[in-house]
Design a protein that fits this description.
There is one protein chain. It is built from five helices and four strands; from the N terminus they run αββααββαα. The protein has a four-stranded antiparallel β-sheet.
Length: 200
């Protein structure tokens, strides 16, 4: 339920900010002048819409919008199945996927309803500059969170700090829970040795 709520809140924020930016034809509201501004994408050839991917890639191709719509629909179904199948303890990973889904759904709505995406956040990193929107930021944040979950956050993450210590502690606790006098199989058997069987 909480994941569904997060999804719809992100989707609502995306659609409201896009509608507000384009209704007011926002222009050059500088947050960091020259680098981070609220500035509606203006492209008369496409009715001020981004008809391509990020950075406008494939924006001039007639096949772009139908292909992007189809890919997004398939991806959303796959992500939904993944979220439902993930163990409940993988909350951070689930949240990351919800962020990606909300962003993808926000841009999907634009492509289906308008034939292109409404971009109004201008970013300039010196070597490149581009327009994006809240949906794009949600996808980016979700992707970063997804990588962090796989590498550091999840219990079985590749580089989770203290992972070996917790595993040893779990083994010790399991051994301590055995009845007195009973030992784990193979605990006193050396490598390559067979356990001895003595007759009473």
């Amino acid at each position: 339920m909480l994941y569904a709520l997060l999804f719809f809140v992100l989707l609502l924020v995306d659609q409201l900010t896009k509608a507000l930016a384009y209704a007011t034809e926002v222009s050059h509201l500088a947050i960091i002048p020259g680098y981070f501004e609220i500035d509606m994408l203006r492209n008369p050839a496409t009715d001020n819409l981004n008809t391509g991917m990020s950075f406008g890639i494939a924006g001039d191709e007639p096949w772009a919008i139908p292909v992007f719509i189809a890919i997004t629909c398939v991806a959303l179904v796959v992500f939904l199945i993944v979220v439902m199948k993930l163990p409940s303890k993988k909350r951070f990973l689930r949240v990351s996927i919800v962020f990606i889904m909300a962003g993808a759904a926000g841009n999907l709505i634009d492509r289906v309803a308008l034939g292109g995406v409404r971009d109004f956040i201008y970013m300039n990193f010196g070597f490149t500059s581009f327009w994006n929107n809240v949906a794009d930021l949600a996808i980016t944040a979700g992707a970063v969170m997804f990588i962090l979950a796989l590498l550091f956050v999840d219990d079985d993450a590749l580089f989770r700090f203290g992972k070996n210590k917790r595993e040893k502690q779990a083994v010790a606790e399991a051994a301590a829970s055995l009845p007195e006098g009973q030992e784990a199989v193979g605990s006193d058997v050396g490598e390559g040795e067979q356990p001895s069987h003595k007759k009473e």
